[in-house]
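Trying the structure run again after the queue cleared.
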Amino acid sequence: MDAYVIIVAGPSIPRAKKFAETLAKRLPKAIAVDCHSFLPSGKTPEEASLLLSKEYLLQKIKQDYTEPFLIIYSDNILSRSAFRQIASLKVYVEVDDLSLTSEALLHYKDSKKIANQSGKGTKSEVGLSADIQRIISTNQERIETEVFSSKPYADIVIEQDEVAEEAVISIVRYIQRTDPRENQKKLSEDEREKRILQMEKQLESSIFKTRKAKVKRKLWTNVIKATLAVKRIIDIVVSLSALLLLSPLFAIVALCIKLTDGGSVIYVQTRIGKQGKPFPFPKFRSMVINADKMKDNLLGQAERKGDVTFKMKKDPRVTGIGRFIRRFSIDELPQIWCVLKGDMSIVGPRPPVPREVALYTQEDRRRLEVTPGLTGIWQVSGRSDIGFKQQVELDVLYIESHGFWLDLKLIFKTIPAVLTGKGAY
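Done. Tokens:
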């Protein structure tokens, strides 16, 4: 089979369809199809289910589809072993309970309309409440037995608050790396072994085996360890002093946020630190309470459409106090506590979110080689005005050249960047 088959499943068929179609637009020469198009015609659902097999599906794909990427979507498709066997990638798209209930009621409304048009709608409005409850209950029972149980088969799970346009960016990168057709373009097994033997011979004859080289490596290792120890001491002294000095500002900001809408003062995310270690990442809340749900309707107004991160200069979700503390990076101040704990440093790459890291390329993972920081090269070079790709490149540049003097230089450059608010929104 030449096609790269992607299975998209989830409790909501409309959401699974939207995700599949969005993914098809991102991949070259891809097509998204409903799984029902694979069912044998003229058969009952029970008979069609018995006829479905890996061989049947492969033959069907070979006959009907020429696209290199085939995306098949449905709600319970992952529960079918035949579809799982032909899949190169299995994606499960979650949905919130409110959307599921709305879809169930919409389905009931459409069914009621059809029944009335055919003269069979005889139920009175008195039974409407009971009908709605029955529809919701039946739909929930079907999802729990046929859909939720298939979630463990998925390779990637898209959370209910993730937007298709954002999530597919990382998925496409993952597909490109795991496409067996791309792997065929790489070195063969014999060529790889030949290269390895050549590298081993070069190593044996290199200066790395000399006593002088060993001494240099030992000295360099000690210098690095000493530098990291000094950096950690500076982090502790600076963060502890900052927490004490800024405590009145913390109290004022917390009070303003609380008086704005009565919601929580601190918004905590999970971020990934050095060597892939997750840690809690606190910020002063600068958005309205239901900001995540409002995000879906704002994607078309993003400053950089198609980027991994969502940035919008006049985001309506940002509160009045939130806009002020964002402009001057006051919302980031609770992260000083992370510096004191050792999860972060004063200077370093900004810590990424877990889903982003899960789909990192090998080159992107270099960002995890050092402790993340409050400020870094891209923060003083434009902040939100810099795209995700450029952020990664600048972080890698810091890792390859960081030292005490560079850290000190970045700290001093952070002060005017914060005061001017350039790139902060």
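Residues 364 and 393 are 9 Å apart (CA to CA). Worth checking whether this holds up in the mutant runs.
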